[in-house]
Amino acid sequence: MTDSFEALIEAGRTADVTGWDFGWLDGRATEERPPWGYARLLSERLGGASASLDIQTGGGEVLAEAAAFPPAAVATESWPPNVRRATRLLHPRGVVVVADPDEPPLPFGDEAFDLVTSRHPATIWWSEIARVLTPGGTYFAQHVGRASAFELIEFFLGPQPEARRGRHPDDEADAARAAGLEVIDLRTVRLRIEIHDVAAAVYLLRKVIWWVPGFTVENSLDRLRDLHDRIQADGPFVAHSTRHLIEARRP
User: Fold this and answer.
1) pLDDT in tens, 100-147
2) CA-to-CA distance for 186 and 230, rounded, in angstroms?
3) Is 52:68 a contact under the CB 8 Å cutoff?
4) pLDDT(1) > 70
């Protein structure tokens, strides 16, 4: 027997949304993974660095997959629950976690790191990335691309034609170059998302808070009911995400 609408809503409402581990969605939602394997590539680059900075590390889950870290390794995060989670996970690995508001300036001196990394940063301050990189240092990251999950976002907000241009990889590459960086690799991919129950949608909208700003179960209950009914009638709600892998070097 499938769970009732009320039970699914309660499950999504009470789930722990700290960190960037999406394991709670197992059996409830799926997303294709990019073909390049960011965690593996990140581990390789960390192994060859002397000083690294991971920006907006979340709960540190992806960074913690690295096999080894350079002698000086730092991660930043702004959300207090994630700072605590990342500290518990990364400190035993020798990574210092710094609470940072994700606004410039980064709390580090010029030319402090030969490797700066990030997975799915919410904001990207290219001039600051360039400033803290050593000459010859690299920025290596996987970014969320344009119009990611917009089928779900527009289900709640209606058409968002202007917002669909945001995070275009060409725009980000141009911004990196404007900050003085040389873009040496840029790859993009479009991935399928399937949402199998309304609890998964609630969880996602509570966790990725910029998708539907101000989302609460209470102010979206009618649309959540519509989504539940649609999934019950037609099967999984299908959306798409885009990702791009970008590597840029400071000359």
Assistant:
1) 999 999 999 999 999 999 999 999 999 999 999 999 999 999 999 999
2) 37
3) no
4) no
Q: What's the farthest any 2 CA atoms get from each other in the chain?
A: 61
Which residues neighbour 37 within 8 Å (Cβ) at sequence distance 6 or greater?
Answer: none
**CA angle, 92 then 15 then 96, to 5°:** 20
Separation CA 121–CA 159 (nearest Å):
24
Q: CB 22: neighbour CB atoms within 10 A?
A: 17
Instruction: Give the contacts of 123 (CB within 8 A, at least 6 positions apart).
Output: 56, 102, 103
| E strand or H helix at 156 | helix 150-157
Q: For the chain, give the percent of residues with pLDDT over 90.
A: 94
* Structural contact between residues 83 and 97, judged by C-beta atoms closer than 8 angstroms: yes
Strand order, beta sheet including 72-77 = 29-31, 182-195, 237-249, 133-144, 113-119, 51-54, 72-77, 96-99
Nearest to 129 by CA among 179, 173, 167: 179
Kind of pairing between the strands at 51-54 and 72-77: parallel
**Burial class for 211, CB neighbours closer than 10 Å (0-12, 13-18, 19+):** middle
Instruction: Tell me which fold the domain 5-249 belongs to.
Output: Rossmann fold (3.40.50)
What tokens does 251 get?
Answer: 């000359």
Relative orientation angle of helices 150-157 and 198-207, to the nearest 10 degrees: 90
d(CA 132, CA 138): 10
**d(Cα 46, Cα 67) in Å, to the nearest integer?**
9
DSSP 248: E
38-42, 72-76, 77-81, 163-167: least confidently modelled range? 163-167
